[in-house]
Design goal:
alpha/beta, Membrane-bound Lytic Murein Transglycosylase D, Chain A, four-stranded parallel β-sheet, 21 helices
């Protein structure tokens, strides 16, 4: 058996110790209102003193950032804001564990019992009594020793008081729940929920325990209690003299004051909202229909403003609501108007889950899954005799899209689910060259390759490899690549020759296409009338405004009660809605397939096609 050199042994110990120290989990940093914080959920046995030592912050810092502690005392399940400071950003406190009786301190290099006792304001004898092994083994760097909490000297007795069991009931948040819905469930105002949970610094998250204030009666709403569409009272507003439209937008610009003269700011969300508003109002002005009464509210971006608005009885006379832009705000508004069946329209990209159990909600921008569904339907019905091939990136993050596309493609062909793996040819491509292509696609010719991947590196490699294969095969192999809408933002990063040679085709929700004479005319008219040029969001607002004008001017009751039975042909947005789940809202399913060809972006087809007016 060999002998290890003492220097090597010391080096290995150092490396292993360093690795263990580096591998300890550091709490995540959250940016809230421009400041950085750690979050600490109070557990049984915690004390203010122990928490301030654990995070290396002063008690004053801890108390000033958490007014709920001043008001209620330290309670189990409270979520505390711990400011990230210059000291604790580099290294958290040496306290590694806190309990009702002790703070566990990890001894640092060059520390002595005396310095530790001074650090904690604790008698040296009390530390020795709590750590009898020190007398035998001495004090060594890395040791964990117990500091008795009752012995420390504090300014206020409550600093070492143990966190009390929460006097409030707790609710574990489930997927899809909103503050508004929980407020309805427990008969509690949203602002009281927020106040009792220290301002909900990171919002409402699935799995967190929400503290419920006050005395309440739980109102159970079973999942299947949403009334069937046919059982909801039909609405007839054809003869209404006026249509009340509630427009909820996050305009909230920051205006300069005497201390910030000239510092007017408008962020990207505000810019989009302002452009959308201009287009929407322009549609109403051009229609010259006087029956629309538009009420515009600046909703900001928090739920408190929305809750205050929903308590205003005047909004209940609305016939249709457009907005808000933010997910939780939209869900609160849709829930509020659900019982009266007032349509609430989401005009910006959001996941389909906002429609769940909200039959009055309308989403005008197709989600990624809806885009894949429409693409699968289009290819299945129009490319049955073509070489359509599904490309599997073999990336974990793409598997859900891949399986969903196969399911939708199989369904569009009216095949049973058992054919899902046989309905479309599927290949994996990683080492892309002429030989591997010949192995997977033995017959030369033109292929349509569907690539439901969001992995930019894979997609760039695929484009480059297939471009070389096309050239090497003397164009015996010709490809059309159909990607995802998200690739439009990345096209500038790809080789332009690859993009156009392979006719990269993308399903787009909307696109300002100046080859369309209607777009050219609109830009000209708007610029003359408003003395500035519109952008895409102005056109989007205009399209939605014209959609409502058309809906309320023709068969209003039909649109009102069954929006999925109507279609709309806009400048950049076409609408054809589908209700995927009974008792839930409707989602637009129209995609525009655009191809890159001859160094231009050209429209290939709109699916499903919408009748032109």
């Amino acid at each position: 058996m060999g002998v290890i050199n003492p220097r090597i042994l010391a080096f290995l110990v150092f490396v292993l110790t360093s690795f263990v120290m580096m591998s300890q989990d550091k709490p995540a940093v959250h940016k809230i209102n421009g400041k950085k914080y750690y979050l600490h959920v109070v557990e049984k046995g915690n004390t203010i003193y122990g928490i301030h030592k654990l995070y290396n912050v002063t008690v004053d810092q801890l108390m000033s950032e958490n007014p709920v502690v001043k008001k209620e005392g330290l309670r189990v399940n409270q979520t505390l804001l711990i400011p990230v400071t210059t000291q604790n950003k580099k290294e958290l406190g040496a306290a590694v564990q806190i309990s009702a009786e002790y703070v566990t301190h990890q001894v640092q290099a060059k520390e002595t019992l005396y310095s530790i006792s001074k650090q904690y304001g604790c008698d040296l004898d009390d530390i020795l009594k709590a750590n009898l092994e020190i007398k035998e083994l001495g004090l060594r760097s890395g040791d964990e020793i117990r500091i008795p909490v009752k012995s420390v000297k504090v300014e206020e007795p409550y600093h070492i008081a143990v966190a009390e069991p929460d006097s409030l009931e707790g609710h574990r948040v489930e997927k899809g729940e909103t503050l508004y819905a929980l407020g309805q469930k427990y008969n509690v105002k949203v602002e009281h929920l927020i106040e009792s949970n220290n301002g909900l610094p990171i919002g409402l998250k699935e799995g967190m325990v929400l503290r419920i204030p006050g005395n309440y009666v739980v109102v159970d709403i079973p999942i299947d209690s949403t009334p069937a569409l046919d059982s909801i009272a039909r609405v007839d507003i054809r003869d209404s003299s006026e249509v009340n439209v509630l427009l909820l937008l996050p305009l909230m610009p920051s205006f300069p004051d005497s201390t910030t003269r000239g510092d007017f700011e408008i962020n990207e969300v505000q810019r989009v909202a302002l452009s959308f508003y201009r287009g929407f109002i322009y549609a109403m002005e051009r229609s010259r229909i006087n029956k629309f009464n538009i009420q515009v509210y600046d909703t900001g971006k928090d739920s408190v403003a929305i809750q205050a608005l929903l308590e205003d009885p005047t909004i209940d006379s609305s016939h249709v609501v457009v907005g808000p832009f933010y997910t939780e705000q939209f869900e609160m508004v849709a829930d509020h108007f659900s019982s009266s069946r007032i349509p609430v329209i989401c005009p910006v990209p959001k996941p389909s889950k906002i429609l769940f159990r909200r039959p009055n909600s309308i989403k005008t921008t197709p989600s990624q899954t809806m885009q894949l569904s429409s693409l699968a339907e289009y290819l299945a019905l129009n490319y049955q005799d073509s070489n359509v091939v599904l490309v599997n990136s073999n990336k974990f993050e793409d598997q859900e899209n891949l399986e969903f596309f196969k399911t939708q493609y199989t369904s569009a062909l009216n095949l049973p689910d058992t054919f899902v793996d046989d309905a479309i040819r599927e290949i994996m491509l990683w080492d892309i060259n002429l030989e591997t292509i010949k192995m997977r696609l033995p017959d030369s010719g033109r292929y349509t390759l569907v690539v439901p991947s969001t992995n930019k590196v894979f997609f760039a490699k695929l484009l480059g490899g297939l471009f070389e294969v096309s050239n090497q095969s003397d164009f015996m192999y010709q490809f059309r690549i159909i990607g995802m809408e998200s690739w439009k933002r990345s096209v500038k990063d790809f080789d332009i020759n690859h993009v156009h040679k392979l006719n990269l085709t993308l399903p787009l929700i909307s696109h300002v296409d100046f080859d369309d004479y209607r777009i050219r005319n609109f830009y000209s008219d708007f610029s003359v009338d408003n003395e500035f040029e519109p952008d895409e969001h102005v056109v989007s607002g205009y399209d939605l405004g014209m959609y409502l004008i058309e809906g309320f001017s023709s068969d209003a009751s039909n649109w009102y009660n069954k929006p999925e039975s109507t279609t709309f042909d806009g400048l950049i947005s076409d609408f054809s809605f589908a209700r995927k789940l009974p008792g839930s809202g409707v989602e637009n399913r129209v995609i525009h397939l655009y191809e890159y060809d001859n160094y231009k972006l050209k429209k290939l087809v709109t699916w499903p096609s919408v009748e032109k007016k």
